[in-house]
Amino acid sequence: MIEAVGNAGRDGELAWVRLSLERGRIVDAHGDGPGVRALLRHVSGRTTLEAAAVPGTPLAADALADALGPAVRAPAPARGERVAVAMSGGVDSAVALLAARDAGGEPVGVTLRLWTDPAGPDGERVCCSPAAVVAARETCHGLGVPHVTLDLRPGFRRAVVAPFVQGYARGETPNPCIRCNGSFRFAELLAFAGRVGAARLATGHYARIVRRDGRALLARGLDPQKDQSYMLARLDPRQLERVWFPLGGRTKTDVREEARAAGLAAADRAESQEACFLAGDDYRSFLARHGLGAADGPILDETGRELGRHEGYWRYTPGQRRGLGVSTGVPLFALRTEPATNTVVVGPRASLGRSRVAVRSGRLFVPVDRADAKLRYRSPAAPARVEARSRGFRLRLDAPAYGVAAGQAAVLYEDDVVVGSGLIASAE
After folding, report:
1. What is the pLDDT of residue 124?
2. Beta partners for 413?
3. 276 is catalytic
4. Which pLDDT value is given to residue 125?
5. What does the pLDDT average to over 361-377?
6. S-S: 136 plus which of 53, 87, 200, 214, CB 3.0-4.6 Å?
7. % of the chain residues with pLDDT over 90
8. What is residue 361's predicted lDDT score, i.e. its pLDDT?
9. What's residue 402's pLDDT?
10. Over 90: is that where the pLDDT of 126 sits?
């Protein structure tokens, strides 16, 4: 006999649930709080996965979900295919759920509850907020689909948020979404898929999977305005064998129209924010609250002449023009920071150009001598010569790139296919 306990609070009210499980089935259920007893009458005798499909009032459903999250296990279905669907509460994941259902599979929705800064000004618009969890659950239950919430807040803070702060402390410009998707998020989602007997994981990302030389590789999504292949580029091809991106060949406009036609509440929901744990805040304010305090230091030109003062090197990134607070009659850009001396070095745009880039913590998914290298999320890809190294690769760009920053991702493309990725270590 196994016991699973869940708690929840909402608007000053509390609820709790205690489930007794035997061989994956609920043999006894107790609890208290608004709506709890009514909900538990419908879950006793069911498997954990069946109980995850039972709707209830928000507070009672929160408590039940808290109990079920760590406990849900299920064998693979006897017939057909079970598909885990990552649910964010937004329109993209809702339509991915429709695709899984319409394909004849047996979908199971899963939402990750991740840590967000409680001091952030707009925590409700992020993909892992309590409101997003409720929206995702209601979408699933409205379609008769089980929904499971996994509370991963401590692990997320260790695996994604802490390295984000540490990267800035080292003078880097890390992209937390790359780390989240490339390691933490998909690892947790695929592990969940295995626990519930799902052969595949479907998500609402705008990317595609293609096959080359017998292996799965990531490729750009059809909609260039929504393509998310850069953010997903560190996914291992072995992981991609179990992943499905049903929206990869569609546009955002088409997706919203399908959601409206299906009567989904998510059809017109606003886009979720990037770097969700910031909760709508500026990253500088976040860093100031989480270990990187103000510290007066010099702003120097390339000759070492002091042009002004700043309140912390970590507030600046290569290529930054606004907010420098200095002027010499020509436009100035942040060229680099020097953490050891709390120094920011600025200069003209021509001094930003970098032609050689060293990439660490990376790999080539297929052998390539040349590729198009995308060195920042909003920067165009640039042709480059590629040299493989034991723990990454080096790039020699055909033309200088501007604003190259250590800690950002370098993603290599052949046409639309991702053939390599890693993190920038240095550039010259």
Report:
1. 65
2. 372, 418
3. yes
4. 63
5. 95
6. 87
7. 82
8. 87
9. 94
10. no
Contact 332, 347 (CB under 8 A): yes
What is the per-residue pLDDT across 205-244, written as a single tens digit (0 to 9) for each? 999 999 988 899 999 999 999 999 999 999 999 999 999 9
Closest CA to 250 of 231, 224, 288, 219: 224
Candidate list 127, 128, 177, 180, residue with the active-site label:
180
Q: What pLDDT is recorded for position 204?
A: 96
Residues 6 or more apart whose CB falls under 8 angstroms from that of 171 comprise 313, 314, 336, 337, 338, 339, 406
Mean pLDDT, the chain, rounded, equals 93
Whether pLDDT at 79 is above 80: no
**Cα(368)–Cα(319) distance, integer angstroms:** 29
- Sheet harboring 2-10: ordered strands across? 2-10, 13-22, 25-32
Distance CA(425)–CA(405), nearest Å, equals 8
The beta strands (E) that lie in 2-78 are given as 2-10, 13-22, 25-32
Report how far residue 400's alpha carbon sits from residue 24's, in angstroms, rounded to the nearest whole number: 59
- The CA-CA-CA angle for residues 224, 228, 231, to 5°, reads 140
Query: What CA–CA distance (Å, rounded) separates 263 from 86?
Result: 20
Q: Cα(193)–Cα(85) distance, rounded to whole angstroms?
A: 9
d(CA 364, CA 36): 52
Distances in Å between the alpha carbon of 402 and those of 171, 353, 427? 17, 5, 10
97, containing H or E segment: helix 91-102
Domains and CATH numbers, the chain: 74-278 (3.40.50.620), 294-351 (2.30.30.280), 353-427 (2.40.30.10)
Place of tokens 């640039």: 382
Average pLDDT over residues 76-81: 81
Q: Give percent of the chain above pLDDT 70.
A: 98
For the chain, the straight-line distance linking the first and the last C-alpha, in angstroms and rounded, comes to: 62
3-class secondary-structure state, position 183: helix
Q: What pLDDT score does 123 carry?
A: 61
Whole-number Å distance between alpha carbons of 82 and 248: 20
